[in-house]
Amino acid sequence: MSPTKYAGVTAAALAGLLFGALLIPAAAGADPDAPPQPSAVPQPDQQLHNATYRARIDGVSRNAMVSYKIDDNNINSANPTMLPGRVFEATGVVSNPQLAGMTVSIDWPYSANLHCEILVDDQIVAQADTWIAPRLTRPHDDPTYGSLACGAPLSPGTGPVDAAVPPQAPVEPPAAG
Fold first, then answer.
1. 103, 149 Cβ separation under 8 angstroms
2. How far apart are CA 103 and CA 68, in angstroms?
């Protein structure tokens, strides 16, 4: 069979398969006896709020991670390159300003000043600062070492975080002596 005839036969077979697929009814994916599932789409009378998340890491660190709520039920994470003075900014939409939350963290053994703030509809609703001191070993008794929480907790059931967290005093290294 010549290449021209072979291409014509292949095109005709493909057209037949596609046409045949259009004639076969698709199987229904919904269970008619199942109760309706709640919709993730906001209700028409529910007002949504724009949340802006800002994070800054002043110091030299690696593996910076910023996690933030992009809506009431979903969390997004980013690993930005955070040089001193650089500000990470992201946005989300929440139904209640008290649901906006984020966490900023750096990897051990680095040290830095961590800063985060959350704006909802261009008004600051939460901000926090902390100093992460350098360590020679990874802390086994403090799973949140190297991180700063701001606003609502990202994990469900962990309780509320104060909306306005006062800045923490820097941790001074022990005196050598």
1. yes
2. 7
- Tell me the three state secondary structure of residue 14: helix
How would you write the pLDDT of the chain (177 residues) with one tens digit per residue? 555 544 444 445 545 544 444 444 444 444 445 444 444 445 556 789 999 999 999 887 778 899 999 998 999 999 988 888 889 999 999 999 999 999 999 887 788 899 999 999 999 999 999 998 887 777 778 778 888 999 999 875 444 343 333 444 444 555 554
Contact 86, 130 (CB under 8 A): no
65: tokens are 């991670």
Cα angle 62, 66, 70; round to 5: 160
